[in-house]
């Protein structure tokens, strides 16, 4: 399973693709694989405040529900409306078209708390081996 | 194999009717004039237009697409699919039970009130509690009621600040959902290697914010918690109460009682332990029992006896209120009541002993073919894991279950409890014979063989059922929850 | 014993296979101090004949609606149940099945639920309906939970004309969640006071709830109440009598967001109060927040149309502490009966039943109104239940009418202290003109 270099990652399998003072946030390929076919995404409101490590939305597959945790603190600038009609985009292109929200960063220093791609690859591998509960 | 059936709307033909009403025998008046100012329907609802022949055939054909307990084995863990006695059905249908209005009044309901009063008493005896209410309509409903009682009690003694409910990681989803509905936050404690609540983990959660712990015993692994009395002491000393989820009571009858274990509040599932039919998903009945100090908080009305007459007591100022419009799913309670009268004390104890024997018999044999995570004597149910098959050839519990359908049996509960990977929770119940259990063992052995020799066959099952595997993704992405006329 | 197939011989063989010496060994892990060391104190076991005699004896003491003529209502009604309904409910494949979690062998249950959902949606004018809840009162409570989950508000405005038990259950359900209730008053004519209701609705109101017809049988002005609710962003919840919807304008046409209520009139026996049927329907925009089971269409791997439990991730077994509600069971068999009833009544019959209820109730009311001392309490349009001020107190009327084998009226003072002395009668299609005339004659005698 490949993850884009240059993105930052959380332990809970979200990513942020930082562009200046904004970033695109979504779920990693590992996360969508664990969840299965995504059937519904509960998107936040534009303008909503988000906090690093706190939930900002919910993703549902056929058999599971998962909170999406924000990689950074800040404000929601845009939501990916495409996911309302095609939630499966998170499965087919999680790191690209399947982005969930675009946020404005409140504090770029917070990015230091996240993993780079090498560390995240290792993390995902370890979780896969342990099996999930 | 039975053919699929069109929707009843697709069988409709304009003008066909299936109803039989006598002609109006009072002088007819214009409805609009009888309902001044009210608006009438302009368009009739699109209910079917079929003959009675169509209706009956339609439903009979639909029924033939179902597997039922009256057809073959149905070992769903924690559901207790035991045989539904037919005398119970007949008795519940007696006009003196089925055709009585809830507000008929005390004089006209003495038979019903006595039945309910005696039933309350039976459940107290079986559960080791001091008083029961029959008002909750299902297990989850009973859980809500019980936790609301706990909340009211704690508030009444100045302990309303307690907002934490402890729940084991093996618990059914209704437990945390119930706690949250009652305004509590939940804290999960892990199970230990024996499958019981990890006492150290529990100790770490105990402080003066604990309101209660919600437990099932035997738990969802089918295992008796060897420390339940210790847990009770720990919780009580911390100022909390214990709630017993009675879903697994079929493993306890005559051997242990929640009240004696230290529980303060409990519910029974009459549609599990006490043989009332599952009905395709209900109606059930979830009576709640409490210890003495909690009696004032029970829902109104309670059923009482003054030495001469039975009556409904509404004068209960500390009651949590009502959880159902009337008195409970009493028609279901009447079936369970009849069952208890038929079985008697020794019979109920035999029920549990045979249920436990049947489960251990299956477990002893099946553990040779499927991973048994907790290798100790179980009670009325046990949990296997499909991990060996998954590692060997990618065949998962889901596939094993679908293949079981081809053999005419219903599979066990899948993917629960959450703490076991590829879980299969098997509860045969006491109403199955050794021959049936042997047949089930052969089926699982065969599927295990197939999982090795021909895994694709298992992964593509079922084949001999009216429908094959369903696409649940589109069902959830684009829900179609009703027929609409074109 | 007949429900325990294994004999001692079987048990012995099974213990050997397990490697245990006795059944007691299987219970060795039960802590000593929690064991029951005596036999349960229950009556001696009965054989089938004895069960019939004993429980049958209890049943015989009750006043059933075959032997007594029923004019009682207040949330449970004596409607005629077609013979085919109980036959259908007695199909073993329906009543001994479990929840349809294995859809491949549950198409009977799943399709019948889908049809039931459709019929309820049609009757109420809503987009979707669920597979049912415990009863009308708890369904109404669930409507509040849905409203709160949708708009995150904590105030409820509920009409005084909603059945008191429904209000009671709603309060109990929300007791742990900091919800406040305001009761909207009714006017002298028996309808909810729209102006006063509007004053009670604020930007904190999650929903406004009315009953249709209301507890007193009076038809409520739904459109005006809906407008009042929506003007402040609150949901409009209508608790409706499903039989009445055969004739009255559907709440879905009047601005309702949720329509729910007691489905007992749809082919379920009175059964001393339960099991009943909480039907629940809402607009499509709320369907993902709606609690309870849902049967939806899909396709199988052979290309066939099939039905499956859908949107299960709303439910507690997946969402756990994040679920809107803890509801697990529904009233499946009762919903099956209701579906069969609606299918048997059909498009025409449901209107015919409703019309007969209306006609007979008005005939009865008009005859009773002629009796000296009997004054109609409310002037508003009523469906099949009506209230009278009576010359003799309701409790005495009940006792005397019982001697004539007539059940009723309801003593309204039991539910509303301010209406002490008022008596309520319900009339369904089952009441013949002769029965109604007997009631009137008996009332005349009793009130002299």
Q: How would you characterize the overall build of this protein?
A:
Chain A is of the alpha+beta class and 133 residues long. Chain A has one domain (8-107, 115-124): Beta Barrel (OB fold (Dihydrolipoamide Acetyltransferase, E2P)), CATH 2.40.50.100. Chain A is 22% helix and 33% strand. In chain A, the strands form two sheets. In chain A, strands 1-2-3-9-8-5 form a six-stranded antiparallel beta sheet. Chain B has two domains: 87-342, Type I PLP-dependent aspartate aminotransferase-like (Major domain) (Aspartate Aminotransferase, domain 2); 352-477, Aspartate Aminotransferase, domain 1 (Alpha-Beta Complex). Helices cover 36% and strands 10% of the residues of chain B. In chain B, the strands form three sheets. Chain B has a seven-stranded mixed beta sheet, with helices on both faces. Chain C has three domains: 8-59, no CATH class; 69-79 and 348-446, Aspartate Aminotransferase, domain 1 (Alpha-Beta Complex); 83-342, 3-Layer(aba) Sandwich (Aspartate Aminotransferase, domain 2). In chain C, helix 6 (107-124) packs parallel to helix 12, helix 7 (136-151) packs across helix 8 and helix 12 (332-369) packs across helix 14. Chain C is globular. At the B-C interface, helix 2, helix 3, helix 4, helix 5 and helix 6 of B face helix 1, helix 2, helix 3, helix 4 and helix 5 of C.
Walk me through the topology.
The complex is a heterotrimer of chains A (133), B (486) and C (448).
Chain A: E1 8-9, E2 14-19, E3 22-27, H1 29-35, E4 38-42, E5 49-50, E6 55-61, E7 65-69, E8 74-79, H2 82-85, H3 89-92, E9 101-105, H4 117-130
Antiparallel strand pairs in A: 1-2, 2-3, 3-9, 4-6, 5-8, 6-7, 8-9
Chain B: H1 31-34, H2 52-63, H3 86-92, H4 95-98, H5 110-127, E1 131-133, H6 139-156, E2 164-168, H7 174-181, E3 185-189, H8 199-205, E4 210-215, H9 228-237, E5 241-246, H10 258-261, E6 265-268, E7 288-290, E8 302-305, E9 310-313, H11 330-366, E10 382-385, H12 387-393, H13 397-405, E11 413-414, E12 423-426, H14 434-453, H15 455-459, H16 472-477
Parallel strand pairs in B: 2-3, 2-4, 4-5, 5-6
Antiparallel strand pairs in B: 1-7, 6-7, 8-9, 10-12, 11-12
Chain C: H1 8-18, H2 23-26, H3 48-60, E1 69-70, H4 83-89, H5 92-95, H6 107-124, E2 128-129, H7 136-151, E3 155-159, H8 164-174, E4 180-184, H9 194-200, E5 205-212, H10 222-231, E6 235-240, E7 258-262, E8 278-282, E9 295-299, E10 305-309, H11 316-319, H12 332-369, E11 375-376, E12 385-389, H13 394-403, E13 406-407, E14 410-411, E15 422-426, H14 433-446
Parallel strand pairs in C: 1-13, 3-4, 3-5, 5-6, 6-7
Antiparallel strand pairs in C: 2-8, 7-8, 9-10, 11-12, 12-15, 14-15
């Amino acid at each position: 399973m490949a993850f884009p270099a240059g993105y930052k990652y959380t332990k809970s399998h979200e990513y942020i693709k930082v562009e200046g003072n904004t970033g695109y946030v979504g779920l990693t390929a590992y996360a969508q694989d664990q969840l299965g076919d995504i059937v519904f995404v509960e998107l936040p409101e534009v303008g909503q405040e988000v906090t690093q490590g706190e939930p900002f939305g919910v993703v549902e597959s056929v058999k599971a529900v998962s909170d999406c945790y924000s990689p950074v603190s800040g404000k929601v600038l845009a939501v990916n409306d495409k996911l309302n009609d095609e939630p499966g985009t998170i499965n087919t292109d999680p790191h690209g078209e399947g982005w969930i929200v675009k946020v404005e960063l409140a504090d770029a220093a917070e990015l230091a708390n996240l993993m780079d791609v090498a560390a995240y690859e290792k993390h995902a591998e370890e979780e896969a081996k342990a099996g999930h509960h | 194999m039975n053919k699929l059936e069109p929707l009843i709307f697709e069988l409709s033909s304009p003008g066909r009717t299936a109803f039989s009403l006598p002609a109006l025998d009072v002088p007819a008046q214009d409805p609009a004039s009888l309902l001044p100012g009210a608006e009438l329907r302009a368009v009739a609802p699109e209910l079917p237009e079929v003959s009675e022949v169509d209706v009956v055939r339609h439903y009979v054909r639909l029924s033939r697409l179902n597997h039922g307990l009256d057809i073959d084995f149905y070992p769903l863990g924690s559901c207790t699919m035991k045989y539904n006695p037919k005398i119970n059905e007949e008795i519940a249908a007696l006009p003196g039970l089925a055709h009585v209005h809830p507000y008929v009044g005390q004089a006209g309901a003495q038979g019903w009130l006595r039945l309910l009063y005696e039933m309350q008493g039976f459940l107290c005896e079986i559960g080791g509690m001091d008083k029961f209410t029959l008002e909750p309509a299902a297990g989850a409903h009973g859980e809500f009621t019980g936790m609301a009682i706990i909340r009211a009690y704690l508030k009444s003694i100045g302990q309303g600040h307690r907002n934490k409910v402890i729940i084991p990681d093996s618990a059914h989803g209704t437990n945390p959902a119930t706690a949250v509905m009652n305004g509590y936050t939940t804290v999960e404690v892990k199970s230990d290697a024996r499958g019981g609540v990890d006492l150290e983990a529990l100790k770490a959660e105990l402080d003066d914010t604990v309101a209660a712990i919600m437990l099932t015993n035997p738990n969802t692994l089918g295992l008796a918690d060897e420390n339940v009395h210790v847990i009770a002491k720990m919780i009580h000393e911390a100022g909390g109460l214990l709630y017993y989820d009675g879903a697994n009571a079929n493993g306890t009858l005559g051997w242990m009682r929640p009240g004696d274990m230290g529980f303060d509040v409990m519910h029974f599932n009459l549609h599990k332990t006490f043989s009332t039919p599952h009905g395709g998903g209900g109606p059930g009945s979830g009576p709640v029992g409490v210890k003495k100090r909690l009696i004032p908080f029970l829902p109104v009305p309670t059923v009482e006896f003054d030495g001469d007459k039975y009556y409904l007591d509404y004068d209960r100022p500390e009651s949590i209120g009502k959880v159902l419009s009337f008195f409970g799913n009493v028609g279901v309670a009447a079936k369970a009541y009849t069952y208890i009268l038929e079985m008697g004390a020794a019979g109920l104890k035999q029920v549990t002993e045979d249920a436990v024997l049947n489960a251990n018999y299956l477990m002893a044999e099946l553990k040779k073919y499927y991973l048994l995570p907790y290798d100790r004597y179980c009670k009325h149910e046990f949990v296997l894991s499909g991990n060996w098959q998954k590692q060997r050839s990618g065949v998962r519990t889901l596939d094993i279950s679908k293949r079981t359908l081809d053999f005419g049996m219903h599979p066990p509960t899948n993917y629960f409890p959450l703490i076991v990977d590829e879980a299969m929770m098997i509860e045969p119940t006491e109403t199955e014979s050794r021959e049936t259990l042997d047949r089930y063992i052969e089926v699982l052995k065969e599927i295990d063989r197939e999982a090795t020799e021909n895994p694709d066959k298992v992964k593509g099952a079922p084949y001999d059922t009216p429908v094959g595997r369903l696409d649940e993704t589109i069902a959830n992405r684009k829900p179609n929850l009703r027929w609409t006329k074109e | 014993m007949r429900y325990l197939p294994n004999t001692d011989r079987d048990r012995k063989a099974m213990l050997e296979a397990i490697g245990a010496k006795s059944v007691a060994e299987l219970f060795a892990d039960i802590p000593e101090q929690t064991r029951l060391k005596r036999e349960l104190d229950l009556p001696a076991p009965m054989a089938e004949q004895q069960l019939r005699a004993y429980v049958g004896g209890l049943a015989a003491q009750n006043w059933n609606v075959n032997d007594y003529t029923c004019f009682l209502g207040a949330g449970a009604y004596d409607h005629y149940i077609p013979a085919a309904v109980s036959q259908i409910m007695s199909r073993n494949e329906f009543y001994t099945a479990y929840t349809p979690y294995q859809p491949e062998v549950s198409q009977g249950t799943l399709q019948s639920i889908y049809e039931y959902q459709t019929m309820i949606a049609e009757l109420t004018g809503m987009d979707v309906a669920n597979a049912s809840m415990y009863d009308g009162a708890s369904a109404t409570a669930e409507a509040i939970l849905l409203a709160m989950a949708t708009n995150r508000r904590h105030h409820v405005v509920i009409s005084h004309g909603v059945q008191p038990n429904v209000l009671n259950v709603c309060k109990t359900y929300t007791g742990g969640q900091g919800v406040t209730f305001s009761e909207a008053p009714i006017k002298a004519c028996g309808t909810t006071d729209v102006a006063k209701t509007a004053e009670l609705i604020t930007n904190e109101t999650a929903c406004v709830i009315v009953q249709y017809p209301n507890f007193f049988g009076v038809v409520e002005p739904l459109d005006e109440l809906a407008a009042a609710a929506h003007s402040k962003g609150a949901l409009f919840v209508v608790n409706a009598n499903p039989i009445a919807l055969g004739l009255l304008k559907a709440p879905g046409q009047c601005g309702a967001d949720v329509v729910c209520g007691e489905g007992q009139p749809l082919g379920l026996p009175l059964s001393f109060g339960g099991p009943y049927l909480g039907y629940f329907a809402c607009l499509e925009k709320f369907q993902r927040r709606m609690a309870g089971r849902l049967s939806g269409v899909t396709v199988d791997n052979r290309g066939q149309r099939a039905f499956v439990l859908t949107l299960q991730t709303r439910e507690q077994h997946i969402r756990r502490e994040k679920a809107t509600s803890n509801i697990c069971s529904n009233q499946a068999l009762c919903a099956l009966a209701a579906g069969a009833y609606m299918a048997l009544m059909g498009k025409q019959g449901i209107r015919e039943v409703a019309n007969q209820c209306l006609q007979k109730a008005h005939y009865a009311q008009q005859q009773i109104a002629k009796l000296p001392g009997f004054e109609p309490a409310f002037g508003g349009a009523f469906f099949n239940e009506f209230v009278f001020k009576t010359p003799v107190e309701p409790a005495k009327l009940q006792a005397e009418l019982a001697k004539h084998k007539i059940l009723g009226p309801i003593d309204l003072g039991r539910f509303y202290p301010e209406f002490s002395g008022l008596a309520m009668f319900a009339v369904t299609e089952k009441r013949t003109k002769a029965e109604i005339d007997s009631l009137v004659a008996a009332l005349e005698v009793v009130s002299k």
